[in-house]
Amino acid sequence: MTTCRTGDALRVVVEGRLDASTVADIRIALHEVVAGADGGPVLVDLAGAEIGDATALGLLVEVRRHARRVGCVVHVVEACPRTLRLLRRARLHGLLVPPHPATPAPVVAG
């Protein structure tokens, strides 16, 4: 797991399989990142991660709740198609993936 600051946000890149045998270490690290976010958003990049079981989904929900308690937000900003499908099926996609802004309609002079 790597972390870098981008503006006021902390971006966390998580790689590898996330399941019951691996989330304990990642849980501690993500809670530390949230604690150090100083109220700014935490952007979780899961593009290189594989959600192995429901424990990983529970971890994302837990970290998001912790962030709310300390006054910041957590968003999943990158994820593979399988992870996005799992988030949708678990009805978590709206909570974790930030909504995409609507594309403004072109202005027609006339």
TrEMBL record:
<dbReference type="InterPro" id="IPR036513">
    <property type="entry name" value="STAS_dom_sf"/>
</dbReference>
<dbReference type="InterPro" id="IPR002645">
    <property type="entry name" value="STAS_dom"/>
</dbReference>
<protein>
    <submittedName>
        <fullName>STAS domain-containing protein</fullName>
    </submittedName>
</protein>
<dbReference type="InterPro" id="IPR058548">
    <property type="entry name" value="MlaB-like_STAS"/>
</dbReference>
<dbReference type="Pfam" id="PF13466">
    <property type="entry name" value="STAS_2"/>
</dbReference>
<feature type="domain" description="STAS">
    <location>
        <begin position="1"/>
        <end position="110"/>
    </location>
</feature>
